[in-house]
Amino acid sequence: MGVSLFTVRIVLKVLGVEDYGIYNVVAGIVSMFGFLSGTMASASQRFFAFEIGKKDFVKLKQTFSMTVTIYAMLAILIIILAETVGLWFLNNKMTIPPDRMEAAHWVYHFAIASFVVTIMAIPYNAAIIAKENMKVFAYISILEVILKLAIVYMLMLFDADKLKLYAVLMFIATLIIRFAYSLYCRRAYTEFKYSFYWDRELFKALIGYSGWNMIGVIANIIKNQGIDVLLNIFFNPILNAARAIAFQIFNALNQLTINVYSATRPQITKLFAKNDIEQMWKLVFQSLKISYFLLLIISIPIIINPEIILSIWLHKFPSQAIIYVRLILISFLIETSVNQLIAVMQSANKIKHYQIFASVILLLNLPISFFLLKMGYNEFTPFIVIVILSCFYIGMIIYISYKYLRMSLKNFFIHVHVKLYIVSLFSFACSFLLKQIFDNSLLHFIYFCLISFTFSIIIIFYFGFNKSEKQSIILFLKNKILKQ
Predict the structure, then answer these.
(1) CB-based contacts of 331, cutoff 8 Å, min separation 6
(2) How many CA atoms are closer than 13 Å to the CA of 455, on its beta-carbon side?
(3) In angstroms, rounded to a whole number, what is the distance separating the alpha carbons of residues 420 and 409?
(4) Distance of CA 219 to the CA centre of its chain
(5) How far apart are CA 359 and CA 81, in angstroms?
(6) What is the pLDDT of residues 364-405, one digit of tens each?
(7) How would you classify residue 144: left for phi > 0, otherwise alpha for psi between -120 and 50, otherwise beta?
(8) What secondary structure does DSSP assign to 378-442, as a single string?
(9) How far apart are CA 471 and CA 459, in angstroms?
(10) Distance of alpha carbon 395 from the chain centroid
(11) How does pLDDT run across 423-441, given as a tens digit for each residue?
């Protein structure tokens, strides 16, 4: 996370605000095609973990080979769509300065190449996560941040069009990561070696699951990349840069929650496959609280003091980024309070109603934002809409979990949501009062963060966990201390 934020600062400085905004909005067009791969990524992890839970390794190998074949087909389809519809949109609808259009085309084509490479790496990534081999996952993640540092160094070293060079280097880094995943899987797991396999029923199962899942992925694309396009159409690339800065912070924090999900969701699916429902719900509730509290501890200082963090991090930044950061993180906290429930829906293959009802709420984001911007509302409007829709989103997720997964509303609210609300209220209140004591100097900000972290951890321990969870935490800490 630290390296990711550091590289953004240097890249923004080297490229300049306008080129940085161009890169993010142009590459964003390509990622809008990601709904095709994103749906299969979720399906891959779910089906791999399910077969591992059932210990059917023959079916696991068949599922893996089938998945790789489908991804190759999707890669071809994405290339066709990107080089036709996407290219037309870039040339005719985007606000790009004429003298940077050639560089924008470089970014676009290399973004397509990077995206296709990423697609072909997803089955191998899903295999490692399904096997719960988090050490390898961590090592490859470390390799990825080292490559990011190398890109930053080469941007400063070579005298060339920085935007073009950045696009090329990002593609090379993506290629290296893809080979790292596939090489490890081929050497470590016999069941994850590709050989052509085709089964009509398995194809229908994978595509059927992915088809319903596609609705949710499209909703997230509209919520994220669609807003970027709207800002470009109604305003200018400077606001794209502001939005990109805010989302870099979001992505860094999101990686923390993804790591919790990656470590627990395969286990949730395996528990469901073994019909150990009580233990499954226990793990879901605990991991939901952990991911939310982890995000809350780090988000509070950022939400309260975004201007100080942005000044330290970037020195110069678009002023709109301050409000964007606050609204995006508030929305993220709201959605994190229920997102782990989706793991149960995926495990049970009961995503139809979730995708139809919950995702429609997110799909409203683009038309509502477009209508309001057309009426003359300011550049913060789309992000306010995101926050409001997030509140409806969590209500729908809870309702679907209760109706179709038989989740106990009493247990969920008493053991999870009430605790989240109490902890959030007290943590924000304490940190806000602390803010009144300290000024905007770097030293006082460090003091603020340390005290805020301490208060939040104490509040989480006493109000966020039940008696048995507290005992487990104390026992864990005692064992760690005794080993020292």
Answers:
(1) 383, 386, 387, 390
(2) 20
(3) 15
(4) 14
(5) 24
(6) 888 888 899 888 888 888 889 989 988 888 988 898 888 888
(7) alpha
(8) -TTHHHHHHHHHHHHHHHHHHHHHHHHH---HHHHIIIIIHHHHHHHHHHHHHHHHHHHHS-SSH
(9) 16
(10) 21
(11) 999 999 998 888 888 877 7
Number of other residues whose CB lies within 10 A of the CB of residue 265: 27
Secondary-structure breakdown of the chain: helix, strand, coil percentages, each rounded to the nearest 5: 90, 0, 10
Q: In a 3-state reduction of DSSP, which class is residue 149?
A: helix
CA distance 297 to 366: 30
The Cα–Cα gap between 137 and 141 comes to 6
Q: Which helix (H) or strand (E) holds 152?
A: helix 134-157
Which two tokens mark 378?
A: 């300011």
Contact (CB, 8 A) for 292 and 337: yes
Q: Rounded to the nearest 5 degrees, what angle is found at the Cα of 355, between the Cα atoms of 349 and 357? A: 130
pTM for the whole structure: 0.71
pLDDT digit string, tens, across residues 79-117: 888 788 777 877 777 667 777 778 778 878 888 888 788
Query: What is the Cα–Cα distance from 20 to 114, expressed in whole angstroms?
Result: 18
Distance (Å, whole) CA 307 – CA 435: 13
One-letter amino acid for residue 250 of the chain: F
Which DSSP string corresponds to 267-296? HHHHHHHTT-HHHHHHHHHHHHHHHHHHHH
CA geometry: angle at 260 spanning 398 and 420, to 5°?
A: 45
Q: How far apart are CA 164 and CA 103, in angstroms?
A: 6
And the tokens for 95? 């606000």
